[in-house]
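ok trying again, last paste got cut off:
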Amino acid sequence: MQTNALWTLDNETRTEKAFCCIHSNARDFSKLGQLLLQKGNWNGQQLLDSNYVKQATHPDIAKEYGFSMWMDYENKYPFYMFRGHLGQYVIVIPSHNMIVVRLGEDREFWKNPNPTKVLPQHIYNYVTEAINMGNKMNAATF
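nice, full thing came through this time. structure:
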């Protein structure tokens, strides 16, 4: 990573919170997504066991969740992701070799206007729009 991250401590015990609150920047969060996309390998060095990455990026508890990661493999563009406490995301779209990072706060984070999906509709919008932008960039001539 390029910068030191901050992991928020619990006020009472002064230990790291296990459920949230790692603060960093988009570039470093994207590297976490890239590490998963590369099955735990970074520059030829296996940092995470590839079997663990496979398990972590596939359903365990429910078809949309496992090992603290969210996913939708039934989507037109299958993806898996880290989901932050207030609407921050690190989304990995393997079919397009793409990582999407969103750091902004979403006050409507827990509302889901799409009752047929566990994940909020805006996540699907991020995935689709990122792919559309990537397609436009690939089609552009420089």
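cool. The mean pLDDT is 87. The radius of gyration is 16 Å.
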